[in-house]
Amino acid sequence: MLKLVNTAVDESRQGEAYSVNAIVFSDNTKRFFIESYGCAMNFSDSEIIASILQGEGYAPTPHEEEADLIFLNTCSIREKAELTVRKRLTEFRKLKRSRPSMLIGILGCMAERLKSKLLEEEKLVDIVVGPDAYRSLPSLITEAESGTKAVNVLLSREETYADISPVRLNSNGISAFVSIMRGCNNMCTFCVVPFTRGRERSRDVSSILSECQALFQQGFKEVTLLGQNVDSYYWVDPTTNHPVDFAMLLERVASIDPLLRVRFSTSHPKDITDKVLYTMNAFDNICKYIHLPLQSGSSRVLQLMNRTYTREWYLAKVKRIKEIMPDCAISADIIAGFCTETDQDHRDTIDVMQRSEYEFSYMFIYSERPGTLAAKRYTDDIPDDVKKKRLAEIVSIQNNLSLESNKKDIGKIVEVIIEGDSKRSNQQWMGRNSQNKVTVFDKVDDENIHIGSYVHVLVKSCTQGTLLGTIVDLPLTKK
Ligand code: 5AD
Ligand code: SF4
């Protein structure tokens, strides 16, 4: 007999490890513990892995010390992510000394890159499984139990796990990730993803729709459609022979129910179309928020990065988004200190940031990744202190932009879905508005208003990261 107990709501999961829902055992079921690093795609993959393991009779546990299987779902995108995982592995090794039957596995992007090193040289793990090989986990576990080192890092051109219903981990029961495609064909020169996650492939449209419908029926209010490059989603419906592009997919998901909010990530500036923008505009329940990575504001650096657009193209895209949806929030990924970046290139990045008036950004120092095109072609020649100084400047510019953007919302009424208690006080709720801004407001004593409810919030003040307000009694179109 198993009893699931929900753990706390996690307001920001980017780059964080998390463990599964708490669980109370009254039998000797085998247990797995899984910790995820990196992008939303990895967190979503962990839910597929949990489903595969549950199918084999394993149950999740949030306590590593009672697990029979420990999995780290890893990220290779920057060196720091890899270092964190290595540190965790050493801790798990110590745990294994007191429980030798425990198996430790590395999943995800580091698996492909470091398989032989982790297995043979450092003897840190028993199982290594790449992002396209999770279906082989049960047989690999059996192999590892018999004392053989178990590895499968084969990449696939077809695998989308379309038929697997993810087991929602650490879920607030309100918002869920839905993977719509895997891999990436873009070959940005700095990026390891095309090597660790393989070629791009889209998931069957009907399986995406069924997953979203099922989530809505279970009470979820928001889905985020995930892919490395969602705008190149493309699926030919075998029953009708009609192709489905990303705009059409968005429309179909948004049509499930007006009460189901739809978000998506990530867009590529070269691929996002007017058709997508018009579809977003046509549906109230498609959130007015686009994550549009910039990487650099210098056309010269963009070319070295193989981003296939110029600063002018990027700025024209931002202008188009605002023309079609003036209230649309935009966020970016920005890399400081890419190979050969000059002070002028850096100033060009800041200039694009200011012109684009981003609501948020994810900002990184360039980290050379072995095997990437940049590592082969260019020298990582920007000194660390210069990279850090440039990053600090970019962060400070973004902080100002975020604050200015939030200040403009003071006096507005925003629609929010209540996701849980705010981080600071259990007397307050938090949720996000359509623009993905975290909004915090006092709880009210009304049985119709609870986690999962749509509420209107009058914004009264703000910080750089949060809108602060009070619930107002407006006739709600949504309950
Ligand atoms: N160094 C620093 N940042 C990187 N990213 C990808 N590869 C690297 C790298 N080698 C950033 C990009 C990407 C985001 C997910 O991570 O900005 O959009
Ligand atoms: Fe990496 Fe570029 Fe693909 Fe994004 S679009 S995953 S940055 S190669």
How many extended strands?
A: 23
Overall domain count: 3
CATH class of the largest domain: Alpha Beta
Please describe the biggest sheet, giving its number of strands, its sense, and whether it closes into a barrel: 6 strands, parallel
Q: How many whole angstroms does the radius of gyration measure? A: 23 Å
Present as ligands are: 5'-deoxyadenosine, iron/sulfur cluster
Q: How many helical stretches?
A: 13
Q: Kindly report the spatial arrangement of strands forming the biggest sheet.
A: 4-3-5-6-7-8
**Amount of beta strand:** 15-25%
Task: Give the averaged pLDDT, no decimals.
Answer: 91
Tell me what the structure shows.
By secondary structure, the protein is α/β, with parallel strands linked by helices. The protein folds into three domains: 3-152, Methylthiotransferase, N-terminal domain (Rossmann fold); 175-405, tm_1862 like domain (pyruvate-formate lyase- activating enzyme, Alpha-Beta Horseshoe), CATH 3.80.30; 413-471, Beta Barrel (OB fold (Dihydrolipoamide Acetyltransferase, E2P)), CATH 2.40.50. Helix content is 33%, strand content 23%. The protein contains 13 helices and 23 strands. It has helices at 40-55, 79-98, 109-121, 137-145, 193-196, 205-217, 246-254, 274-282, 299-304, 311-324, 343-356, 373-377, 384-407; strands at 2-5, 22-25, 31-36, 59-60, 69-74, 103-108, 127-129, 150-152, 175-179, 181-182, 201-202, 222-226, 234-236, 243-245, 261-265, 289-291, 329-336, 360-365, 413-421, 428-432, 438-442, 454-462, 467-472. The strands form seven sheets. A six-stranded parallel beta sheet has the order 4-3-5-6-7-8, with helices on both faces. A five-stranded mixed beta barrel has the order 19-20-21-23-22. A hairpin with a 4-residue loop joins strand 22 and strand 23 (467-472). The chain is globular and about 65 Å long. The relative contact order is 0.08. The structure holds 5'-deoxyadenosine and iron/sulfur cluster (SF4). Iron/sulfur cluster binds at residues 184, 186-188, 191, 193-194, 228-229, 268.
